[in-house]
# Entry
Amino acid sequence: MRKIAPFLILILFYINNLPADGFKKYAGEFLNLGAGGRLTALGGAAAAVVNDVSSAYWNPAGLREAKGLQFEFMHSKQYISSIQQNFLAASAELKDNSTIGVSLLYLAVNDIKDSRKAYYPAENKVDYSLVKEFNVGDYALYVSYAKSYNEKLNYGLSVKTIYRDYESESALGLGFDFGLKYKMMQSFTLGLMLRDVTTTMIAWSTGEKEFITPSIRLGAAYRLTFNKIPLTFQPAADVNILFEDRHYASQAHLGPLSIDAMAGMEIGYHDVLAVRLGMDDLQRFNTGIGLRIPKLTIDYSFTSYGSELGDIHRISFHLRFDRVL
# Structure
């Protein structure tokens, strides 16, 4: 741990001295929509909980606990089904106490009407035969690596490539996420996620550049087990700290710091059935259920949006196999 502490101090010093010019709030907001049915049902309280192939998104250090060969696919529809989000991930455990993973997060809006070349001002009408349709999409590809430092501490790194396709223009970006998971006791775990740690630049084809500021996520989870009943309880909580001066779009703020909290609870029965609930950073209620059978886990989560935009439904399939590398 003493070898890693100077690295963390250097990162915090770097974040504190970043220039404000050039940053735009919400430049990477599509990266905050979540991945997988299990942890979205917990409201995103995941930094200390995640331990499978989806770790590349939530905390790359958790990837070290993804045993064997794993695959996951998630599909969601939200906001009156007009926005579709997909998450596809694969991980493989290696023999040197390390794990590698590749993940793709994809957000799309399809069949958008384009009437820009169909309107005739002189006649004040639209020629509907000239109305076209197009799609827009945001993509993030993660390549991740996690390793055990000792029996209690795991660390991980994700390199992510961002591509944004908006019909008439597009953008490319590159960023890095770093994570730690520390098991203080057998049932108590802490998590740390440093997102966009070196600042992520997104360069548009128009010449404009956007920057995603670094953020810090701290998490804690405690797993309760009982000898007389086949139930487990795992409460978890995360605090997300951003440096984008989001005064009116965060739960709390202190100068340029914006602070959001997430909390969730997972109740398991015989490690086969799980019921989950949580409150996310937007204070929305989330719930879900998971069913684990040999080689396959199916997770469903529901987010109540509470407005005319509609609720969010997610379903994910998680496959597990023996180690092959």
